[in-house]
Design goal:
It is an enzyme of class 3 (hydrolase). α1 (about 15-20) crosses α3 and α3 packs across α5 (about 175-190). This protein has helices at about 15-20, 55-60, 130-150, 160-165, 175-190, 220-230, 235, 245-260, 270-275, and strands at about 25, 45-50, 65, 65-70, 75, 80-85, 110-115, 155-160. With about 280 residues, it is of the alpha/beta class. The termini are far apart. The model is unreliable at about 1-5 and about 195-200 (pLDDT under 50). The protein has two domains: about 15-190, Lysozyme-like (3-Layer(aba) Sandwich); about 205-275, Muramoyl-pentapeptide Carboxypeptidase, domain 1 (Orthogonal Bundle). About 30% of the residues lie in helices and about 10% in strands. It is elongated. The strands form two sheets. The protein has a six-stranded mixed sheet with strand order 1-6-5-7-2-8. A two-stranded antiparallel sheet has the order 3-4. The structure holds zinc ion.
Length: about 280
């Protein structure tokens, strides 16, 4: 049965992170409260095809008589529309094994993406019957999630790689997972420090009064820019230290938020973001 939860381990950030990636996103009603219990640690992404070009997000939320929904966290339609269906655990993986997953436990450790696609056949060449819009949405959503988890694309796998032997699964059909992973990696960009980048939310404490956003000027903004440039050179290395919170600063703030677990990606430095980056306060 679906149940209400508010556990920090669930990917409550899915909608924000996907939207920030520029995809067309639909939030399926009730997604934040849908799931078969809570995630354990999220280790990556698992890609599927539904087996039918017309399978809807609603059918993924609802499930089947023999398998109640949600059947995955995300659904990608053939026109590229991504629907967030659930925040909790979904029945998408079943039994199987993969090196960075505990055997038969992928549902509790991976975010499932169901793509409305027949799959064509187990031997069809890469991207046969995969519209550009759908494939692009798949690449972007996997990149957004992997980046959020501070992981490279090796943490995206196909159902067939996990459950090919155990269940005879061949989805996603007509997807060469190595090519998909290289496309995802190109979209992720560089992850310089996979182990250290994500961190849990920290108490806001002395940062309760901090509120910096586009248009604000002054020494505190200069300090923000200096820390972003010096501490996150791989995406803020060319930030100009001028004390003016402009588009470049906002983009760097968003990138910091995107890469930090528990932060809303809004480009605004409030108490939580300031605390997460240990912003040095300037009086
Ligand atoms: Zn599958």
């Amino acid at each position: 049965m679906p149940q209400t939860r508010r556990w920090v381990g669930d990917p409550v950030w899915l909608a924000d992170v996907l939207r920030a990636e520029g995809v067309r996103l639909v939030e399926y009603p009730g997604w934040r409260d849908r799931g078969h219990g809570d995630f354990k640690d999220i280790r990556g992404v698992m890609v599927h095809h539904t087996g039918s070009d017309n399978a809807s997000a609603a059918s993924i939320a609802r499930g089947r008589p023999d398998l109640p929904g949600p059947l995955s966290q995300l659904h990608i339609a053939r026109d590229g529309t991504i629907t967030v269906v659930a925040v909790g655990v979904a029945w998408h993986a079943g039994v199987g094994m993969y090196p960075w997953l505990p055997t038969n436990m992928a549902n509790w450790h991976t975010i499932g993406i169901e793509c409305a696609n027949s799959g064509t056949s187990p031997t069809a060449p890469h991207r046969t019957h995969w519209p550009d819009a759908q494939y692009d949405a798949l690449v972007r959503s996997c990149a957004a999630i992997n980046r959020r988890l501070a992981q490279n694309s090796s943490r995206t796998i196909g159902h067939k790689e996990y459950a090919g032997r155990a269940q005879g699964k061949w989805d996603p059909g007509a997807i060469d997972m190595d090519i998909l992973r290289s496309d995802i990696q190109a979209a992720i960009g560089t992850i310089p420090d996979p182990a250290a980048t994500p961190r849990p939310p920290v108490p806001v404490g002395k940062y309760a009064e901090v509120l910096l956003f586009r248009g604000v000027e002054g020494p505190q903004v200069a300090q923000l820019q200096r820390q972003l440039r010096d501490e996150y050179p791989y995406y803020a290395g060319d930030l100009v230290i001028d004390g003016v919170f402009g588009p470049q600063t906002e983009a760097a703030v968003r990138e910091f938020q995107r890469r930090t677990r528990g932060l809303k990606v809004d480009g605004v430095v409030g108490p939580a973001t300031a605390a997460a980056m240990n912003l040095r306060l300037v009086s």
